[in-house]
Structure formats: structure tokens, C-alpha cells
């Protein structure tokens, strides 16, 4: 027996004299095998009714027992049954509560993580244990809704500003409103996007040594790289593998000049289109062509309809948001003068198909490629160029136009009952240059399904401690424009409001391997969640147990990357963020192509699209439940101490060389120690405090929510360097830049710039020291350099 519910059926028109009916066996609850018992009161027969004074019915019955011994016996039976029932229910409640206390008691919740504890009913609503909420969520999540929504979203191209995009936005807004959420609204903004010029198409030609056209290479006019530089260039061809830093360094070491050449690069290699083009530009290339090589695709891509004539489109802005308002919002009420992002490329870039790449690479001469650069293209022997047969060259011309487009972000929220001003945010991009089953369909479907599920849970009595915010972003295919512009508009308040962000973009590209890019603060949440959720491909096995079975401990965490929907939240706004993804061992080949349809995705998954979407939704839902339920936010506040410790070890290895140049690493060591002590002290204080005290919990949560924000450097301009996070950001202020500069002491001492390194070290040290002060919480608990040195 899972539950016993007492239902008291009363009617104001019926006297209070009643007899107690037997326990009636009820129907099995929908979706489960547990039966329930109903304790039901029924009206006594009319000829047995007796009059009684208002409010003293039992006394009246007792005074009249001599009139009818049978009635007295019946009454005593009633009293006995009531007493027994009350005692039974009381005992059930006590021992059930003790059971949950034993599971969730102390300073641990039932996942064994800090910050949980046995929860009394939340203020303002019915109380549920975390296990009850999990059961409710699993019961409400539906596979069919996910599959149907992916099919609906990806039935046609829906780029920002198109009629299809506007229609989809209206549909999602309507679905949010039908869910009976607490608040639903939209925010509009104008952003500058780039599209192909309708009057003049981008082109590619083979020309002779005099520049006369020998052959035009046909391109699909709809394939383009948003934010490419426009214009024409002509030069030789260089093959640069994936266009990674190590690939360009190898070409340079071999003596291959890329100056003025068109660089041909493969899709993938862990490098975005924007990074490939930026690196080509930094080596003074004249243009960039990017193609999908069959060697990087499933063994038989043609089985799913992928031909060698398919190109992959992706933006090439080395940043996110509107590139003409870097660091500040492009909302309608703002009138900032246009400032061009430094991440916009200065060379033209085009996506090409494998067949076009084969035509170019088959004519190359020059040094041979390394073995790892081998391609799978017909008639191509792997050489790097830059020469072409018969003195030929390539001419490329890109004709794109910048266009202001009205964008709409759609929001819907469930208000928290205790801390409504703290938001757990879930988001997914809505737009796509192609059908976008993976690019926008799965994220939108899981977003809507989670919104429906949590709304239904609230209707069934769930009372979230903190607010849940569900967002459908616009212009994601252009560099997360909608999300980044919103962040820029609310930057000053987000570190006090946003608990965490979960990106649902491209959440399903397979159903075999789970990967995650995440802020380290959310690692414990994910670790607990994968132990609860069943693997979509292996029934009866959790994601964690399946990973353990296949390769030891699970190692699915990756650092946040520039094109991730979660990246701006952490690197720009200082909000802990995570992006989850189910994939296959080999890449899903259709993203950013016209072939990214629901039917192909369903075929790749063997018909398990709905099931995989449900598992991903349940995984995110598990983490959201913890954040919405626990009194203290279950974030790992000590995570960055280990990262800085690793850097300190590198500094220590170069200590003698640094000191010979008048540089002391002691300042960094002290700041790291201050941060570690502050984090550990705060964690101990949380472990030994009364978490049910609202003021105490609020104080601790405020400090926890600011941890990520503390690592945004105060010493760089948000306009010039939007990604200010010293761990995850980009620029000279970051730990990665400092580490690379430090490595020059041994690899290339002549290039080591002592003055610049001193500045980098000082900026990083003071950012870390500021984080330590912030975690300490009170001025009298902070320890500055003057106090500790």
C-alpha cells in the first residue's frame, strides 16, 4: 500500500449523525499499480436520526444510549473504528516521516549531497519530499509530445524575421499561455543579422595565371556563413585540415605560406567556423572555405540521404549577440552608436560541399599532409598546397547583406513560493536556417514539455521554493543573439536573480553517449541526476551505471565553448550554466544542413526520439527539482579552488625564472589560499547551520549565487572584452592566456613579455582575491594583502 487517503464527504443539508462505512477498495491509480483506501462517511437512515444540540452531537448520542442499546453498541463500534483509524494514520505519518528523515536527514539529502535535509512543508504550499516530486515528474513527462513538437518545429525552414519564424513564435506563445503559468510575456529587439544578397549571389571560380575565368564552380545560393566579410579575393589554395591552432602551426613550420591564399578546412575538430576563420585571418589568408569530409561522418552517410553535394552553414562571428552592439543591449529603447565587434572577420568565408572541396584539393601540389590529415575524397592525394596545377588560382566572391531584424524572445514563468526573486532558467533557440530538427526542434520540444510538466506538478500541489523561467530564444543560429542581448540588458541584476541556466540546444544528436559542457559549480547536480535517470538505450540501467559498465567512471564533462547556448550566461553574465547532449560515437552529420529533419533524426535514433527526449528532459528536470526544492542551493562552491591550484603548480615550476625577472608568484599563492579558505569556511558554516531559518538560508544563497559573478574581471571593458570571466572567458585577462604566456618561458623565451605578464598576473590575482572577499561575506572576515603579508 503506497498511500492512504482519507476523504471526508460532507453535506451541509444533512445532520451530523452518521455511521462509519467500511474501508472501500478504490480503483488503481492511473499509471501505477498501487491501490488506495477511502475512508468514507455515509448518512444514517432517517428513522435512526436523533436531534442534538449544535456542536455537541457526540454528547447527545451518549446521553440517549439507554433508549437503544443497539444504537449504543453501534456508536461504540464507530468510536472504536475512528480511534483505530486515527491511530493508524498517525503512526503511518510518523514512521513515514522518520523514514524520509533517515534518508534525507542530517546535512545530506537522499542523493548524499550537501544542502538537502528533511524538509517541512514549504511556506505557502503543500509539502512533498524530493522522492515524491521525482515520481510525479516521471509520471507526467510524455514521449509523444516531444516527438510531435520536433516534427512540428522542423517541418519548414524558419529563420529569424521570416513568416515561418513568426508563425512558430506565435504558436509557442500560445502554448505557454495554455499551460496556466503565472506569467507569460515577450520581449522584442532589433538586431543586425546577415543574409545572402538576393540580387547578387556568392560565387567560386577557377582562373588562370592572368586571372581569366576557366570554370565556374556551382554553389547552392542558400549556403552561407552569417557575418562573413564581403567582396572578392583571388589566390592559391592551402589545405589546413580542421583549421585548429596546431594545424596552422604545422603549416607554418613546414614553410607553407598562407598569405593571400584561400584556406580549405574541414568541419569539426572541436573548432567552430568562427575560430577557423579567425585563425586563417591571423595567418594572413585571403579567404576561407569550409567543407564536411566524409571521413568524419558515419560509415555510410548516403544511407540517410547525405550526399557529397551538401554543405554546412554556420556563423563566423567570433563572439555572441549582435556584433554591432557588443557588450550592451540592442533593445528598442536604446540608441547606442554602432560599434563593430572585434570578432567580425575581415576575410570572406563560404561553406562548400565535399564535391567542391574534391575539385579544388585534387589539383593541389606541394608538401604531403601528415597521416592524421588524410581525407576521404575521390581523386585527392593529400597535399597541402599552395600551388594548383597549370598555374591556376581560385577566385571567390561573397555577397551578403546586413539587415536589421525584429526579434522576439518568449518567456513564461512559475513563481517560487519562498524566494520568488530567484530564477532557475531553462532556454532553447527557436530559429533555424534549415529545418532544424536537432538545431532548434529538440530543444524547443523539451523546453515546452518541461514547462507543461512543472506546471502540472504545481497544479497537483508542488510548491517550488524558487521561480522557474522558461525561454524560447530568437536568432540562435546567428550566435545566440536573442539570449545574449537579453543578458546584456539585465546584466546588473542577474548575479542577484539567476540561480542557474540550462541550455537545451541540440540536446539530442543520438542516444548512446551523454556529454555536458558546464560551469564546475553544477557538477555535483549532474552527478546526482545521472544516478537517478534511466539510460534511453539501455532499459533498467541508469546513465551512470551504463557509463561505468562501458568505460569505468563517467567522464562526460567538457569546458564551456563559444558556440554553446550556455557560454554567454557564464562567460559574460557570471551565471552557472550547463548544456547537455545525447550523441553517438560518430558525429550527427546533418546539423546546419537542409537535411536536418525529424524523420532523419528518428531514423538515426532507431525510432527512439521521444524516449531519448524524455530521458534528457528528466535529467534536466532532476537538477531543476533540486534547485527549486533545497533550502540551500546545491552548488559546489569550492570547485574553482582546484582549478587555481593547478595553475599555482605551474607557477611554482617557473618560480626561479620568474623571481630572476623580479616577478613573485607569492601573491597568487596567497590569493588562492584566501579563496580556498573562504569557500571551505562557507561550506562548513552551511553544513552546521539551521537550514530552515529563512534569513540564514537567504544569506548563504546570496553568497553562493555570486560565486560565478566574482570571477568576471573588473579590469577589462565589457564593450571591448564582453567575455570577462577569468576562467571561461576570452582575452588577455583569462587564466588560459596567462598559462600560454607562462609557457613561453621554456618554449620561446624571446617572446616572453615581462611587462605584459606582470599586468596579466596582477589582474588575475586581484580578481581571485575579490572572489575570496565576496565569499567571506562580511568586511570583518576579509583578509587583504596588507593584513596577511
TrEMBL record:
Keywords: Membrane, Receptor, Transmembrane, Transmembrane helix. It comes from Xyrichtys novacula (Pearly razorfish). This is Transferrin receptor protein 2 isoform X1. The chain crosses the membrane at residues 72-95. Belongs to the peptidase M28 family. M28B subfamily. It comes from the Eukaryota. Pfam families: Peptidase_M28 (PF04389). One of its GO terms (cellular component) is external side of plasma membrane.
